Amino acid sequence: MRKGFSLVAFARGAAGVLVVLAVWQGFARSGVFSTAMTPPLESIGRVIWRMLADGSFIVNASATLVRVFIGLAISFAIAVPLGVLMARYWLAARIFQPVLSALLPIPSLAWVPLFILWFGIGNLATILVVIYASLFPLVYSVWTGVRAVNPLWLRAAIVMGADETALFRKVIWPGALPYVITGLRLAFGRAWIGVIGGELLASPKLGLGEIIFNAAEFLDAGVMLGTLVGIGIIGVVFERFVFQVLEAMTVRRWGMVTGAKT
Amino acid sequence: MMRALSIAIPVATFAAIAVGWQLLASYGGFPPKLVPGLGVIADAFVRLAGNGILLAATIATLYRLIGGFALAAIIGVSLGILMGRRQWIEDTVLPIVSFLYPIPGLAYAPLFVLWFGLGDVPTILLVGVSSSFTITINAWRGVKSVKPVWLRSAEVMGAGDADIFRRVVLPGALPYVMIGLRLGLAQAWRILIAVEMLMSVQRGLGWLIFGAQTFLNTDVMLATIAVIGAIGILLERQVFARVERYTVVRWGMVAA
Predict the structure, then answer these.
(1) What's A37-254's CATH class?
(2) Do B102 and A101 touch (CB under 8 A)?
(3) Which of A58, B106, B190, B237 could form a disulfide with A107 if both were Cys (CB 3.0 to 4.6 A apart)?
(4) Alpha-carbon gap, residue B98 to B91, rounded angstroms
(5) Could you tell me the CATH superfamily of domain B32-249?
(6) For residues B222 and B36, is the Cβ–Cβ distance under 8 A?
């Protein structure tokens, strides 16, 4: 991986993107398939512009993001106490770990039809999928993070008279935080996949997955591709910028990990 | 004592969950169609296993998994190695790969149906394409992680390009490649179950769950979910742990 900005790398990257776009355009215009199935770039651009202009993209994207963040918040509220308990008490680890490892290999989306039967189509089923998808990376990272706290620090703090709350707030939590943030980033990635799948299957009212699902009914590949581009951009923005910046900030500020490079 | 406890506690946990579920099913006041008792779920499992539906569904799903994963492995490993070895390929391809990587593969499902129709072919293609990115990125990182000193010393000792690739780059990159394949397989598995629900394939575990929903067969759904979980554990623990033991661990690249 090259350090810093390189004009050559940028030019090559741009060339790569242009070649892909040109091939697509040639293919779309060649008439092998109807333009409804493989729309040329200008109609995809028009669709994106229309969705941005009438606000429908913003509305649906925020509906999707709200589901992701509600789900993540609930996951977080479950994962932190659970992970800390499991790391601090042998008995808790023994009780919960087998349950977690039994549930972990089941894809979150396998539950969707069941959630729909139990809770009906809509928001609740979709948010449950997000919770299921994001819970495991969070619990495991909190658990690992708390265990990774140097026992010497714990003993030092106890000797200096720290009580349980101070121990948690001043030693355990900052020590575990780099792991927790990494866990959050992984959880977001899982949640992002889960929410789109949930929206495709559990058909809540709004959402990016819902747009794609509806577009399939009208054979509207332009809307699908436009939405896919939007999903990609939102995913990159959160994954690369929000979470990696967060990761870099905490890790550096607390000096928890030396030479933290991704 | 400790050892006995560490077996007894998980057993007790699962027993408690089973009893809790059974109480919920019997006295919770939910319709038994939606919250079936353990006996009913076990019956459904025995029935499905006995009449061969479960076996046929598992075979169909595994067939798609192998097809999709093979596709992903071929695309991912070769593209990743090419990116790692040639700077211009890395520069050209990396922006596209990094943009496509975070798009959930499932979002393409309706598009693939539109392009390729329903059935096995689009399912395998979609699973293959969407799990190839993880494999690509890891193979690329693996090649990049090969120490330049090893390359230079091999060169100095007179190794040709092919030799360097076979003896230095490949073993050096392999731990990462294995991680990529492992993550890729897990991803292919997760996505496949959902794709089977959207692609209306014939047979398959995802199809079984989705079909059972129409008839409110919660027992069938839960039995199938249990099978999916068991296969997931087998894939992770048996298949990959074994392959790793015979390759990277044996070569001393990572600790067992």
Answers:
(1) mainly alpha
(2) no
(3) B190
(4) 11
(5) MetI-like (1.10.3720.10)
(6) yes
Q: Please state the length of chain B.
A: 256
Number of H helices, E strands in chain A: 12, 0
Best interface-test mutation with A: which of B11, B21, B185, B190 has the largest number of A CBs within 10 A? B190
Which structure tokens are listed for B88? 């211009």
The pLDDT profile of chain A, 262 residues, written as one tens digit per residue, is 455 678 888 888 899 899 999 998 988 888 777 777 888 888 889 989 998 999 889 999 999 999 999 999 999 999 999 999 998 888 888 889 888 888 888 988 999 999 998 888 888 999 999 999 999 999 999 999 898 888 888 888 888 888 888 888 888 888 888 888 888 988 998 898 899 989 988 877 888 988 988 888 887 888 899 999 888 888 888 877 787 777 777 766 665 554 434 3
Structural domain boundaries of chain B? 1-30, 32-249
Distance between CA atoms of B172 and B96, rounded to whole angstroms? 26
Q: Are A111 and A129 in contact (CB under 8 A)?
A: yes
- Using DSSP's 3-state secondary structure scheme, residue A244 falls into helix
Coil, helix or strand at residue B32:
coil
The number of beta carbons lying within 10 Å of the beta carbon of residue A92 is: 17
Q: Do B107 and A212 touch (CB under 8 A)?
A: yes
